[in-house]
Amino acid sequence: MSHARYLVVLLLVIMLALAFTKNASGIPASSFTQENGDWYDNWGIDRNDPGYGGDLPGYLPNLATETLGANKELAYSIGQDFQDQYPNKVSRAVAILKYVQTWTYYGYDSDNFIRNGIGQNEWAQNADDFAHAFDQAKGISAVGDCEDMAFLCGTIYVGAGFDAAIIDAPYHCALLIWLPDFSNANNYWDINDGRGAGWIWVEATGSANPLGWTPPDFDDGDWTAYPINSLEFVAYSPTQSTSTDLPSIDFNLILLIIIIIISIMLSILRSRRG
Prior knowledge:
Blueprint: H1 3-20, E1 32-35, E2 38-41, H2 74-85, H3 89-103, E3 104-106, H4 109-112, E4 114-115, E5 118-119, H5 127-133, E6 142-144, H6 146-159, E7 164-169, E8 172-178, E9 187-190, E10 199-202, E11 224-227, E12 240-243, H7 251-273
Parallel strand pairs: 3-6
Antiparallel strand pairs: 1-2, 4-5, 7-8, 7-11, 8-10, 9-12
């Protein structure tokens, strides 16, 4: 076989290997057109408008379709890597949140997303947009806000073998994952999907937020959850959670007990000296 044929065969092998590799590295297709002041991506989703009740073209929760199912790419493959690295599901869940908190940071859309010279008051990134914006090897982190982090976490968790649900809360977006075996959540949510209490909150907007911590503003359950694994986007509203909050501590009582103990000890010391 000639050198040219060897080269052709080698190139074909390399192309096949790249086609079947699990860790996708292509750049997600994202072209945008403006209509009535809003920017629509090439899937027809309005990146400026969360929408109401899950209706298209709003991005909540519809943006998940761009990075799951037939469109899964980099963010999903990150989740697959976590599934390979962490056989224990609880450890895997904790590691994923820490990973996202490490390589992303919170920033306002108007400061960071500019279209035609105008800062966007609202701009949603899909999970692959966000995943391609940070680079662990080069130490580059990426900026996003609550919905960006929710969609990124959602796709990674689904890729890692979890059931996940996008949360549409008043002025906020976050994520739930189904993990009833997790022991350190402050709330275990029942979203009325027939599974009972076992959904826990994933809040990536702060670097110190632990897995399973529901922010106090959302303890009332006044929000909607959209499970994203099946991409059917059925809306569920929670009616209850199982709280694991510790009982409140009466610090005045503790102080009084300490004073009494000290007084008794001083009395004993005085009696011994006498």
